[in-house]
Amino acid sequence: MSLADVTSNLRAPIVTKVADKPTVRVHSVEWRKIMAGEPVEINPSVGHGYRVMSVDEWSARWKPNEAWPECLQCGSKNSKEHHFTQTWCRGKKKWESECLCLDCHSFSFRSYCDPDFKTPEDVEKERWQALVKGDTSMPVDAI
Question: What is the pTM assigned to this prediction?
């Protein structure tokens, strides 16, 4: 899916949050170490071992978010995305993104979920619960 697909036809508000540390767990331990001046593990694709790194050096391999480069704290466009996940199911979408501002070191978190989004597991659970109750109106191919 393209970035345009993710950001178009939104049917609910985008949830935003600003924090001084990552909202999502990925990189949260490394961030604490970077800010404390402790060594962090070097990216295995460029070497091995541990090294004290600056924020710029640590985040050098991340890419900017094309849709929302603005920091929610200071408005700078000098940010890089360290987390993005998306789920599409039966034409409905759910996603979340978090960017680190390289100017103020704030994390801008954005998430979105279609109001009627359901995972395949949710649909299957509803189908089985309906079958247990004797309701056969839900088609088998609804999954």
Answer: 0.79
